[in-house]
Fold this sequence. Notes:
Blueprint: H1 7-16, H2 22-29, E1 34-39, H3 62-65, H4 76-91, E2 95-100, H5 110-121, E3 126-133, H6 140-148, E4 154-162, H7 166-171, H8 178-188, E5 194-201, H9 208-219, E6 225-230, E7 233-234, H10 238-244, H11 253-266, E8 272-275, E9 285-287, H12 294-308, H13 320-323
Parallel strand pairs: 1-2, 2-3, 3-4, 4-5, 5-6, 6-8
Antiparallel strand pairs: 7-9
Helix pairs in contact: 9-11, 11-12
Amino acid sequence: MEKLSVLKTQSDYLSKYRFFPFSEYLKEKFPFKVHKIALHAGFTCPNRDGRVGVGGCTYCANESFSPNVKEPYLSIKEQIQKGKSFQKQRYGAEKFIAYFQSFTNTYADVNTLKVYYEEALADQDVIGLSIGTRPDCINEETLNLINTYTEKYHVWIEYGLQSIHDETLKRVNRGHEYKSFVDAINLTKKTCINICVHVILGLPLETCDDMMKTADAVAEMGIQGIKLHHLYVAKNTTLAEEYFRGNVKTLDVHEYVQLVADFLERIPPDVTVQRLVGDTHGNFLISPVWKASKAGITAMITQELEKRGTCQGAHYTVSALTNNSSQKSDLNKSRFHTMEF
Ligand code: SF4
């Protein structure tokens, strides 16, 4: 697909928002309004079904961030139809990225995956795929399948990393180590698939320094998207038990805004920012309860960066690793590292 011509417009985004919103990237890239449709394909997760672990990550209440999990099962085609009509009506969306969001969306044999992905792509208004998964749940065969879609579609894979620190990953029962993530990234960089990475800020026992080490490591990897979440405690999770025992604290909104600003300053300015606040649905939330809306928190992050006189990438320096990246994705072709505004 055609690459983004960006130098001026990215500069405009950084001037306006102080970071590079994915929504602006989509507006620039496509001549029509593109939204994501979140899908639940019925996959489970190897960290819940016993293959890697049981119980899942201590914070995992997939129902709380994937609302369609708790709804009666609809086929992918039906979910696309429903999502399209909602997004068209509510946001005037015209085309769609099918977002395989719930649980681990590469956790099946390649023939099964093909059926699900192609059911989504069969809709004439679907112009892309975004596939959320764990880094230990990917292999060359699956990546080769996903890579075949990059010729005609806008394709992303979203890896849950959360932290680069093995001690933290163990503490939250992620069921994989940092090395799995590095291996997955290296394998994916041989393809044309865009990579988005999920990180959680405020994980138990992590210091600001630990989180910034995660930012620096992610910045080096030649990725194209980042999603930041705050740690929240949801009902019916192991984390909730720890929280009520007094062993876990959550961030207040001002601490979180500071951490996000620090994090973004370390991330290259051409990495699209796809999320800045975790998402949970009403009744599930125990802590933190913030009064500000998601839009309000995003505005606070912009204001904080303005106050500092910095922006995304202000403290990022190009490394040899990034320059030598073999990634062929359409975003990476447009990578640049200096910014003036
Ligand atoms: S990897 Fe995702 S779905 Fe699996 S246990 Fe962790 S948070 Fe839940």
